[in-house]
Amino acid sequence: MLKRRGDSQVKLIDFGLSRLIPPGHTVKDMVGTPEFVAPEVVNYEALSPATDMWALGVVTYILLSGGSPFLGDTRDETFCNITGVNYHFTDR
């Protein structure tokens, strides 16, 4: 969200679901807008900072392309699009 027209400061908003997670604590919750959730959210696996990086990647994709990479016609179709692909990331 831009504060003023022509302003270069960007404000991040909507932290209504945010919380601090103590070290060593595991969180497994199904929350968030379907098209932005990571595969581990859909699969009820432990959440981590990588979960937030996934959402940031989706936002970046939308900003650069103008389209959502996983959005389906229904919530379930969106979840299938997110979990139905084999992702291979190499360590660098």
Automatic annotation (TrEMBL):
Cellular component GO terms, alphabetical: nucleus
Note the InterPro entries from the entry.
Kinase-like_dom_sf (IPR011009), Prot_kinase_dom (IPR000719)
Q: Which UniProt keywords apply?
A: ATP-binding, Kinase, Nucleotide-binding, Serine/threonine-protein kinase, Transferase
Per the record, the GO terms for biological process are: intracellular signal transduction; positive regulation of apoptotic process
Residue ranges that the Swiss-Prot or TrEMBL entry lists as coiled coil: none
Q: Which PROSITE patterns match?
A: PROTEIN_KINASE_DOM
Pfam families recorded for this chain?
A: Pkinase
Keyword Kinase: yes or no? yes
Protein kinase domain: residues covered: 1-92
GO MF terms listed in the record are: ATP binding; protein serine/threonine kinase activity
Query: Under which name does UniProt file this protein?
Result: Protein kinase domain-containing protein
Q: Which organism is it from?
A: Ancylostoma caninum
Q: What is the lineage of its organism?
A: Eukaryota, Metazoa, Ecdysozoa, Nematoda, Chromadorea
